[in-house]
Amino acid sequence: MVQLDHIGIATPDLDTGSAPYLALGLSPEGPDEIVEAQGVNVRVFRVGDAMVELLAPTGPESAIAKYLEKNRPGLHHTAYRVDDIDAEIERLKATGATFLSEKAGAGLHHTRVIFLHPKWGAGTLIELCEHPKGQH
Ligand code: CMX
């Protein structure tokens, strides 16, 4: 089953980006966490079963730094939780889907993640993520 896992928001810094979510009455879930593989510092706000993930670049090579050179801060991607990411990649590849990497890589909280090209996503960068068994 596919479920919304999170929306990713690009921000130059986590404190500035947090303001609207704090005003809505949400609190960060756990400490900020760096995901080296993606070059991002992440702050998570849980909203029911899904999350808002604020993404600040850790350096100029980060995909988020490059995004913010060309775009305003704001919605960067939507992410969908799948049970078996390898099977889902194979299934979508067979339909002609365009992934941005060959295989799933490391995401936040020991998830495995992969991105699909925004053109495939009809203008939205889409992520698939698989949580460790028994967690979400
Ligand atoms: N949402 C929608 N469209 C996007 C986009 C986004 N977030 N980022 C780029 N695009 C579009 C651009 O508008 C551009 O479209 P056109 O060709 O129509 O002009 C096209 O994609 C290419 O964009 P670009 O600015 O030239 O950027 P790059 O090719 O250098 O990289 C992308 C774009 C998506 C391939 C790259 O950012 C990537 O590989 N992303 C996946 C990894 C990632 O985003 N990691 C950060 C999040 C980490 C996390 O959640 O943990």
Give keywords:
136 residues; alpha+beta; 2,3-Dihydroxybiphenyl 1,2-Dioxygenase, domain 1; 8 strands; 20% helix; binds carboxymethyldethia coenzyme *A; Ethylmalonyl-CoA/methylmalonyl-CoA epimerase; MeMalonyl-CoA_epimerase; VOC_core
Sheet-strand content, in percent, reads 35-45%
Q: Give the number of DSSP strands.
A: 8
Q: In order across it, which strands form the biggest sheet? A: 2-3-4-1-5-8-7-6
Helix content: 10-25%
CATH-derived architecture: Roll
Distance between the termini: 13 Å
In total, the number of domains comes to 1
What is the C-level CATH assignment?
Answer: Alpha Beta
Radius of gyration: 15 Å
Keywords: Metal-binding
Protein name: Ethylmalonyl-CoA/methylmalonyl-CoA epimerase
Family: Belongs to the methylmalonyl-CoA epimerase family.
Domain VOC: 3-131
